[in-house]
Design brief:
CATH class of the largest domain: Mainly Alpha
Number of domains: 2
CATH superfamily of the largest domain: Intergrase catalytic core
CATH architecture of the largest domain: Orthogonal Bundle
Shape: globular
Distance between the termini: 94 Å
Helix content: 40-55%
Radius of gyration: 24 Å
Strand content: under 5%
Largest sheet: 3 strands, antiparallel
Amino acid sequence: MTEIQFVSAGQDVALSDAARRLMDRGVSPNTKRGYSSDWARYTKWCDGWRRTPIPATSETLAEYVTTLAQAGLAPATIRRAITSIRTAHSTQGVTPPSTKAALAVLRGYKREDAPRPKKAPPLLLPALRKMVNACDPETVIGTRDRAVIVLGWAMMARRSELASLDVSDVTVVSEGLEIFLRSSKTDQDSDGEIVHIPYGSHPETCPVRLTQAWISRVGTTSGPLFRPVDKNGRLGGDPKFAGRKTGARMKPQAIEVVIERAATRAGLPVGRSGDVPGYTPHSLRSGSATETYRAGADPLAIARHGRWKEDSPVLLGYIRSVDKWKENPVTGVGL
């Protein structure tokens, strides 16, 4: 009879450096930044109130949520903070605290004191044309900004998706462009998918022509599709690039600068401060979904093109914004 060999359980629960590295890469940079910021704020609060950050009790979590509510934070921000704290516990092999009391505090806050969220307005076609016309096509930065705005609109893209594109992800076909997305918010496994972008009816807002114009202008055949541009028209990664050091790829936050600059020059509101919510990168996504549905596109086709889940409440909200007027029951009753 063969003798059974017993080994230490330590080897069975160990993870190699390679496995840890790949696991780390599996979490999006935006998620990492958000969780890191949430955890830093939470541990600082715990230090000030002499509470144990981990393992946390349900009472500690409820008191922390109360502090965030008293500071006037948005309910969505508070909910993410709760998720961040529970994720940190799970990551360290510690049982997360119960959220029952914390969520009760959050519900009370939403019913009484929570600020009404200011949603960025959808960028509809008239405003899109104004923003594109405000970008000077004679300059390198103007050529890039026009391509960023219109391709982002046509793709219904998130800003992280735009920033992640490489030149090699863009394929020109007879019908337009095929854009390969390696991953997205709804593709956490990074299976990748192709987004099809047809030619536009108007050259000044045609995503195919504007993207090709940008690629031709900078003459790059590899590397990031959208790159930083300094005041002298030099691209990020160039040794002579002016200003602070930056990489060859535009960061997602830089997409916001592109939108704000074009909107300001076009005389349109920007950002989320002030009485009138202004345009942000998300306006490209919501505006395209709104306009395509208004033009008769099927909601399922919009969901697939924009990489929403088919039952997405966010997409449903854009559709309802059109239907509340197009199919308003009071219209036509003779008032």
